[in-house]
Amino acid sequence: MSNLVSFVIDGKKVSAEPEESIWQVAKRLGTTIPHLCFNNKPGYRSDGNCRACMVEIDGERTLAASCCRHPSDDMVVHTQSKRATAARRLVIELLSTDVDEQTIAGSTFDNLVQSMEIGPSRFPKKVTNTPDLSHPAISVKLDACIHCTLCVRACREIQVNGVIGLAERGHDEKIIFDFDDPMGQSTCVACGECVQACPTNALSPASAKVTKTDKQVQSVCPYCGVGCQVNLKVNDNKICSVEGANGPSNQGRLCVKGRFGFDYITSEQRLTEPLIRKEGIEKGVNIDPANPYSHFRKASWEEALNLAAKGFSDIKQQHGADSLAGFGSAKCSNEEAYIFQKLIRAGFGTNNVDHCTRLCHASSVAALMETIGSGAVTAPFMAAEDSDLIIVIGANPSENHPVAATFFKQAVERGTELVVMDPRAQALKQQATHMLQFTPSTDVALLNAIMHVIVDEKLYNQHYIDQHTSGFKLFATHLKDYAPEKMQSICGVTADTIKTVARKYATAKSAIIFWGMGISQHTHGTDNARCLISLALMCGHIGRPGTGLHPLRGQNNVQGASDAALIPMFYPDYKPISDCETQTFFESLWDTPLNPKEGLTVVEIMHAIHRNSIKSMYIMGENPAMSDPNLNHARAALAKLEHLVVQDIFLTETAMFADVVLPATAWPEKNGTVTNSNRQVQMGRQAVEPPGNAKADWWITHQIAKRLGLEWPYSTPKDIYQEMLLAMPSLANISWERLEQEHSVTYPCPSPKEAGHDIVFADGFPTEDGRGKFIPASFLPANDKLDTEYDFILTTGRLLEHWHTGAITRRSEVLNTLEPEAFVQMSPTDCSALKVQAGDMVCISSRRGSINIKVRVDHKVQTGLIFIPFSYVEAAANLLTSHDLDPFGKIPEYKFSAVKVEPI
């Protein structure tokens, strides 16, 4: 039986879905009805308060707001009647009376006034509000506010930040931030959703307003693994503003970096010419990036490429292929990752190739491959909306994946329970049903205790275990030693809380787990991930809507770069280097013999340089001089290399060690695909021309390959992608043309015309027997020991405003203004004991190095724990961290370093 509603609109009989409004039906039929308080974008509810969309309905005394009125059978609607249009014109005229013409210029409201040909208002004007320019990113000019409340809904219901509200009543009613604070002093996180929603420019970017643009280009945000789609508005070859596009992972939403962090591409520090190091100058982090000519000279592309290639060729001839290595980048496209690893393997003749996944989720991938046969997520983060319970552990999505966090917060608003587990408290604590602030580095003890309860109380899903898993009996025996009463003194979470969380997860109809680098960046990171996977397997929370395992990816193309094999032990699509059949396939595809020996990982390469076994490196878009652990050790390695070629958009700390620097293009300056945390392959498009003689990364790599004797038939990124389709079965049915048309396609994809599968492994896993494996993990203490001298635990991470090593965000004026200097978060108790206050300088030392840094008092960190972001070169956190590795994922220990804190 059909649920369609049949009614008449403007004399035409039509059918509508029950959830469609009259406004939406009219739009579908090509009829324009003005609207202001309604936002026709995903997630926004209609409100009907502005009365700009009124229509006439037969038999009804009053006009109806079409945005929030749903048709009923046999209803007769008139959208263009004299009464309706006159009412709408009067509303717009009245609203235009009390707004400032200069502020609204170019706004949605201004365009509406112009389109309706409404002349000067007949009513007296009264505009008295003073602009609020206290925020670096957003200007507030309430002289243009019409009280449509779109900004309130944007802040409270879409981003779920709860900053913007309405205060007072009647004539004194106004929009406020928190407790009527200036916006710059409020808790606003500058996501800009209110700016994007505001129809009058009452809320607008603080930068100079551009009312006219040359073009709009749909692309992908260059920051985290969420993969938000963006509309880049371009004027005079500059990105003048950014809006969220309706991509599958963001549905029009952005964070502060995605919306306001694009000005880095016009930084005066951009590299625009190839550089060659001057003779006899010491290598180190010793150059002003605004003046590279103190240590380098300009060169032509021909000279620089020839010198780069000759250095690789000479060292290979003298010391063998394995004396070379390469670091690729997850900030580059899939095509650039693919061609880079191909150069290292087919041109250099080695598998010594890696990238930042080694420093963020290598242990997660190792555990996923071992247990369920795939390193990708089993469900997207939007699946949270179908969950009864969400676990977020070792992650701070409000800061590191802000748009993904909106889906979690919206789920909570609808009744989903949220369990957050992390040694450091975070913004999601406000929405959390339970916040388990456990002792650092005791993840295995806590997770095993949770699983002990589930096994002991027989809450596991026996049917799922029998049908889809192996090894459960042995695993259950292993858990007997992890009773909550025994583990509570180790992990710092009470036995009762452990039991409550265990019961809720096990008995939930649908539960999903998200984790971040708080899980993976440990010497026991693989064990941590094994526990999470086992927890999901024993409860059957995989393969159904609202369930799954999702390691939140760090950079915009970590998933894609890993899929394309920027890793030393796999060919594309995670085919093992050791597999003879795979090697034969790629030797045939690439028409060259390949090295059968697995390569070295990021930190292993640094050790190998110190052992004199690696002599030369090619680094594309990575910054190990800031991101590697134990930076004194890593920087000494970079300085020791005989030949280093760095390809980047800025003179990064790593580029300061280079012999040849090759200027690359930024993400908005080139075309290519990226794959986000949800397995969504997305099309990135060039919006502006690059500065000077900067070139796309794929072009530079191709030119080096050519000089090493490799004749590759690539003229565009599309040519590379065509070869990737042959090399990577995961991309089946996802053609370049399809991506151009649809913008985003999820893999695996069953056919050229069907959507890809968001949720996978409903019927089994890509393992040899089709079953998921339970792998026991035993609790082990952290390698770096606390003692009477080193009595604080240091954990490191990212900030909302800055990304990774700060190479691009610290060159964004807006982002750097929001968080301009390094700081250490310390608990009030520790600050009191050390007699330091907010703003004081302290010296923090580990067994590897020391830094001086400013104190920020913060209740989020527990006593004995400190947090330092690693994006500030002037107080580089990784001077303190250990290069001890997880034995399986070969990932360093970033989340637990023994340090001492001394007042200065």
What is the strand and helix layout of this fold?
Layout: E1 5-9, E2 12-16, H1 22-28, E3 54-57, E4 64-65, E5 76-78, H2 82-97, H3 101-104, H4 108-115, E6 138-140, H5 150-158, E7 164-167, E8 174-177, H6 193-197, E9 203-205, E10 215-220, E11 229-235, E12 238-244, H7 256-260, E13 275-277, E14 296-298, H8 301-319, E15 324-327, H9 334-348, E16 353-354, H10 357-360, H11 362-372, E17 389-393, H12 397-400, H13 402-413, E18 417-421, E19 434-436, H14 443-456, H15 462-468, E20 469-470, H16 472-478, H17 484-491, H18 495-507, E21 511-515, H19 517-520, H20 525-539, E22 548-551, H21 558-563, E23 570-571, E24 575-576, H22 580-590, H23 602-610, E25 616-620, H24 624-627, H25 631-640, E26 643-648, E27 660-663, E28 672-675, E29 680-684, H26 697-707, H27 717-727, H28 736-742, E30 744-746, E31 772-773, E32 792-797, H29 813-818, E33 823-826, H30 828-834, E34 841-845, E35 850-857, E36 865-869, E37 882-885, E38 892-893, E39 897-903
Parallel strand pairs: 1-5, 15-16, 15-25, 17-18, 17-21, 18-19, 20-31, 21-22, 25-26, 26-27, 32-36, 33-35
Antiparallel strand pairs: 1-2, 3-4, 3-5, 6-9, 7-8, 10-11, 11-12, 13-14, 13-27, 23-24, 28-29, 29-30, 32-39, 34-35, 34-39, 37-38
